[in-house]
Amino acid sequence: MVRSKHLVAMSLLATCVVTGAKAALDIGDRAPNFTTEAAMAGRPFSYSLSDNLAKGPVVLYFFPAAFSDGCSIEAHEFAEAMGKFEALGATVVGVSGDDIDTLSKFSVKSCNGKFPVASDESKSIMKSFDAVMQSRPDYANRISYVIAPGGTVVYSYMSLNPVKHVAKILDALRVWKQQTLK
């Protein structure tokens, strides 16, 4: 009895370590496809998840609001690490409920023009990923995903603390890449 409780506890701990907190989509789930307006380096364009998955893995991260302290910190962290993401063959896109004009400015100031941020004013993308913040439904929760080229979620991490997302996502990408090379 004690052994089985220990195994259950270890299993739960392993699940929390792998996924962070419980994220909206589970590992192995198919990521919902979407196309929406995005901006990179101040220039709006149409972003398609499926088009980017055709190039390699996609890091999709949801953030509550452009220009808030935490979201600016997180965007800057992603921008600083873009060389590492590119070396792993991954692209990055951030998604929030902000309008495209706000995100165009955010893509220059906080993202340093290094990756796109996509607008989800209708909250349809957030809803499809179950990424709506429960306590403030007008905002996205801070959730980061690694999505394999086939469209399946291979890692997720949820925490309102913006500091750990980049390191955890990079580690997950490295593990995924090593597993796909075997």
Number of continuous helical runs: 7
Major beta-sheet overview: 7 strands, mixed
Morphology: globular
The helicity comes to 40-55%
> How widely separated are the two ends?
37 Å
* Topology-level CATH name: Glutaredoxin
Q: In CATH, what is the homologous superfamily?
A: Glutaredoxin
Number of strands: 7
Beta strand %: 15-25%
Uncertain ranges: 1-23
Tell me the structural class: alpha/beta
Could you tell me the mean pLDDT? 88
Indicate the radius of gyration in whole angstroms. 16 Å
Number of domains: 1
CATH top level assignment: Alpha Beta
Give the SSE order as H and E letters: HEEHEHHEHEHEEH
Strand order of the largest sheet: 2-1-5-4-3-6-7
The CATH architecture classification is 3-Layer(aba) Sandwich
Folded structure, characterized:
- The protein is of the alpha/beta class and 182 residues long.
- It has one domain: Glutaredoxin, CATH 3.40.30.
- It is 40% helix and 20% strand.
- The protein has 7 helices and 7 strands; from the N terminus they run αββαβααβαβαββα.
- Strands 2-1-5-4-3-6-7 form a 7-stranded mixed beta sheet.
- Strand 4, helix 5 and strand 5 form a beta-alpha-beta unit.
- The chain is globular, with a radius of gyration of 16 Å.
- The N and C termini lie far apart (37 Å).
- The relative contact order is 0.21.
